[in-house]
Specification:
It contains eleven helices and 13 strands. It has helices at 11-22, 42-45, 63-71, 85-90, 92-112, 153-172, 201-210, 230-240, 259-270, 294-300, 308-321; strands at 2-6, 26-31, 51-56, 75-78, 117-123, 175-181, 183-185, 216-218, 224-225, 227-229, 247-251, 257-258, 277-279. Strands 3-2-1-4-5-6-11 form a seven-stranded parallel beta sheet, with helices on both faces. Helix 9 packs across helix 11 (308-321). The longest helix has 21 residues, at 92-112. 49% of the residues are buried. It binds nicotinamide-adenine-dinucleotide.
C-alpha cells in the first residue's frame, strides 16, 4: 500500500518524502509547486529504495479527491499549506481557502478512501499565542488555555484544524496525529522574500551573509525561537505514521535561542564580520516561544538528533553549494 504526502516538493515535505522513500515506501506526492520545487525531489526519485510518483495538484481543487480515491493511501502526511503569516494577515480568505478548505478536502477524501490516518502539520509557534513566560516551554495541553490566541489567520487555521481532526476521528473513524512544529530550518528552505517569514530566518541570514550582504534584525534581537533541524522533523513524521493516535504533539528542540545569538553563530560559521541593521519589530511577532517535546519522546520515541551547531553547519554548507 502507498502513502501520500501533500506539499511533497516543499522544504519539509521533500525531507519527509526522502525519509519515507528511504524506508522502501511507495510514496505519492502532491504539490501545486506554488512555492515547492521539483528539484527538491531529485534525491527521492533516484534513491532506488522506495518509489515516488508525483502529481501537480492544487489541494483546493476537486482533482485532489480523485487522486486520493485512485491512490487509496494508507496514510496521508498533510504538509501543503499557505505558509506566509503576513500573507494570511493581508488576505485571510485566501489563507483559509488553502489551509482550512483545502485541508478539509484532503480529510474528506481520505475518510472516503479508507485511509487509516492523517498526519497533520500544525505550528508550535502559532497555535499557543504568546504564552506567559512562566508557562514556557509550552506543553500541548495549553492549546486549550485562554492565552492560546493565535496572532494571525495562519495561526488560527493551524489551530482550528485540530477540532476538525477530532471530528473526523470521532465521527468518520479517520485517525490523526497533529505535529506542532517549532521553527524548522535546514537545507532546501527558501525565503519567500527578502523580508522572509519568521521561520525562515536561518535561510535568510545564511544566504545574505554568504553573499556578503548585511542582514536586518526586526526588533531588538532578544526575541527567542526554538530551532529544530529538518531531518529530525522528517523522522517525527515517520514515527507518527504509527504512533500518537488522536494526539497533538510538539516537535522542537526545547532550547530557546535569541535572534541575535543565531545571527552571531551564523556570522562565526560563515566567517564574516557584518553588523546587523535593526528595524522596528513586526506586529504580531512573539517575544518568546519554545515548545516542550517530552510528549514526542514518550509517545513517538522521538528526540532531536541533530544539535544546533551541526544543523547550522550543514545548512550553511548547503547554501554555500546552492548560491
Ligand atoms: N517551516 C517551519 O518552520 C514550519 C513551522 C510550523 C509548521 N510548518 C508547516 O509545515 C508545512 C510545510 O511548510 P514548509 O516550511 O516546508 O513550507 P513550503 O512552502 O516549502 O511547503 C509548502 C508546500 O505546499 C505547497 N502548496 C501550497 N499551496 C498548495 C496548494 N493549494 N495545493 C498543493 N500544494 C500547495 C507548496 O508548493 C509547497 O511545496 C506547512 O504546513 C507549514 O504550515 C512549517
Amino acid at each position: 500500500m502507498s502513502v501520500l504526502v501533500t506539499g511533497a516538493s516543499g522544504f519539509i515535505g521533500s525531507h519527509v518524502v526522502d525519509a519515507l522513500v528511504a524506508q522502501g515506501e511507495d510514496v505519492v506526492g502532491i504539490d501545486d509547486l506554488s512555492s515547492g520545487s521539483l528539484d527538491n525531489l531529485a534525491g527521492a526519485r533516484s534513491s532506488g529504495a522506495g518509489k515516488l510518483t508525483f502529481h501537480r495538484l492544487d489541494i483546493t481543487s476537486e482533482a485532489v479527491a480523485e487522486a486520493i480515491a485512485r491512490t487509496r493511501p494508507e496514510v496521508v502526511f498533510h504538509l501543503a499549506a499557505q505558509v506566509d503569516v503576513r500573507k494570511s494577515v493581508a488576505d485571510p480568505v485566501h489563507d483559509a481557502m488553502i489551509n482550512v478548505i483545502g485541508t478539509l478536502r484532503v480529510l474528506q477524501a481520505a475518510s472516503e478512501s479508507g485511509t487509516d490516518k492523517v498526519v497533520f502539520t500544525s505550528s508550535g509557534g502559532c497555535i499557543y499565542g504568546e504564552p506567559d513566560a512562566s508557562r514556557l516551554p509550552v506543553t500541548e495541553d495549553q492549546v486549550y488555555s485562554a492565552e492560546a490566541m493565535p496572532e494571525s489567520p495562519y495561526g488560527v487555521s493551524k489551530k482550528v484544524m485540530l477540532d476538525y481532526l477530532r471530528y473526523f476521528r470521532a465521527v468518520k473513524g479517520l485517525d490523526y496525529t497533529a505535529l506542532a512544529l517549532s521553527n524548522v530550518y535546514g537545507p532546501r528552505q527558501e525565503p519567500a522574500s527578502e523580508v522572509g517569514l519568521e521561520g525562515q530566518v536561518v535561510a535568510i541570514f545564511s544566504r545574505r551573509l554568504l553573499g556578503g550582504k548585511p542582514c536586518t534584525i526586526y526588533g531588538d534581537g532578544t526575541q527567542t525561537r526554538d530551532f529544530v533541524y529538518v531531518s529530525d522533523v522528517a523522522a517525527a513524521f515517520v514515527a507518527a505514521r504509527k504512533g500518537g493516535s488522536g494526539e497533538l504533539i510538539n516537535i522542537g528542540s526545547g532550547a530557546e535561542l535569541s535572534v541575535t545569538d543565531l545571527y552571531d553563530r551564523l556570522k562565526a560559521l560563515i566567517g564574516v564580520d557584518l553588523e546587523p541593521a535593526h528595524a522596528a519589530a513586526r506586529p504580531g511577532e512573539l517575544q518568546r516561544i519554545v515548545v516542550d517535546s517530552s510528549k514526542a519522546a514518550a509517545v513517538l520515541g522521538w528526540k532531536p538528533a541533530v544539535g544546533l551547531d551541526e544543523g547550522l553547519g550543514r545548512t550553511v554548507e548547503y547554501f554555500r553549494a546552492h548560491p
